[in-house]
Amino acid sequence: MRTALSNVRVFDGQGLTEPRTVVIDGPTIGDDATGATELDGGGATLLPGLIDAHLHLAGPETLDELAKWGVTTGLDMGFWPPELIKSMRGSTGTADFRTAGLPAIGPDGMHAKVLQLPAEAIVQTPDEARRLVGQRVAEGVDYIKGVAEADGDGGPSRENIQALVDAAHEHGLKTVLHAATLGAYELAVGTGTDFVTHIPRDGVIQPEVIAAMRAAGQIDVPTVSIFESMIGLQDHLLATVAALHDAGIEVLAGTDAHNVPGVPAEVRHGESLHHELELLVRAGLTPVEALRAATVRPAEAFGLADRGVVEPGRRADLLLVDGDPTTDITVTRKIKAVWCAGERVRG
């Protein structure tokens, strides 16, 4: 089925185009409107489907909740068992996802004490870290996730985290390291990981650590939403995002959305990404920069070459909103329609 979505202003990564027509040709964006059913967009704004660069899936219903809010891709940072992941791959009429599978944690950190992770997640030697990477590779994960803690906080040792990062890179996979304290940040940045996710909950990140991140070309996913839920929106949270952004560190939009029992904070799938965009703007990103942080930039950073922009040949993941989100980021909530791989799932 082919649909010609006419009279829409398209977010092209820099701003909005003049009103134009976008062709939805099956699961992709086409360039031929011949024989298409015309749908008048009424001058609304057409965005690429949003990408949440840090969340936790629970099952197929999670994908449906994301899709309802125009989040057409979720980058999961801890999901198991492998059989459930496999059963959800390639789902249609809902959001798409990528996953790290089971992450690597230490024996005595918060993740070991609070979350019900399988024992195989615990790594206590470099060999165990390398073995975990091999297991995840065999399962077909998309990247590797590890939990860094400050020395003495019960996470994997520096040696073990380094072995995890090195092994992932040897397999051609990028790494994401959780770091939620100043000490954990210093450790994570020093490994050469590709992404650091979260920001320190105990203060503004040190200038020398930011400088090291920039030198290494590392990308940050702050997930301000989860910390706001846990400790309130304290000044140092937005100050850290501002410091990262001002230093030229790439910042991606992620939420840590989950429904994990025992975690003392609630971050709702889908809806929370719109709030995260608002928080990024409060921290100093422009609305255009925030939109890029949830569309083209995570697509590029995680190697998702088929999405993140509205162009012929790309996946028809689309979000139609009423208004101009390049001047008012809250407009992303004014959803008129959502398409996931060309299937209209809302509106």
TrEMBL record:
Domain Amidohydrolase-related, first and last residues per copy: 45-345
**Alphabetical list of InterPro entries matching this protein:** Amidohydro-rel, Metal-dep_hydrolase_composite, Metal_Hydrolase, Metallo-dep_Hydrolase
Reply yes or no: does the keyword Hydrolase apply. yes
User: Per UniProt, which keywords does this protein have?
Assistant: Hydrolase
Q: Which Pfam families match?
A: Amidohydro_1
Organism superkingdom: Bacteria
Record-level Gene Ontology MF annotations = hydrolase activity, acting on carbon-nitrogen (but not peptide) bonds
Name the chain's protein: Imidazolonepropionase-like amidohydrolase
Which species is this UniProt entry from? Kutzneria buriramensis
Upper classification of the source organism reads: Bacteria, Bacillati, Actinomycetota, Actinomycetes, Pseudonocardiales
